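Sanity check

After download, print the first record. It should look like this:
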Amino acid sequence: MASVSMASSLLPLSSSLSIASRGSSFSCPGSVSFPTPSPPSKQRGALTIRCVRVGGVEIPNNKRVEFSLRYIHGIGRVRARQILCDLSLENKVTKDLSDEELISLRDEVSKYMIEGDLKRFNRLAIERLKEIRCYRGIRHEMGLPCRGQRTKNNCRTLKGKKVSVAGKKKASR
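Expected structure tokens:
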């Protein structure tokens, strides 16, 4: 008797629930509703923040700051930790940073050569080596390794795909 009364008390509730699946929802009697997950965002006033922009790059806000900073070209593991130590920030999730912490993070990152400036610097350094025709510049022009690696067997990345060379044909008599 107790189970029948419990089932009848749940019946009106279960008919009002629906299943939501990937943008579409449909009602199904006796089913439970599960909301679809929304992308992580943060409310700041009337604006909704989905990504944090640091150094001209959108870094993921669902990861810790140390790992998010690595998405910026020119910032690796050591430099990301160094930035956090200099600012004495906790390594918390990026979306949990306050406005003041974000501003100080942007100022600290702007002190380093990152992204386009770093790529331009490296490109100009290689062009200078090519102009003065030093060993490293010549190796860069030829597309070969310039740091002493052997090239008989490996270095396929720099040399490109193998090209088959036709062997000499024996002269017929």
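If your output differs, re-run the checksum step. Summary of this record's structure: The chain is about 40% helix and 10% strand.
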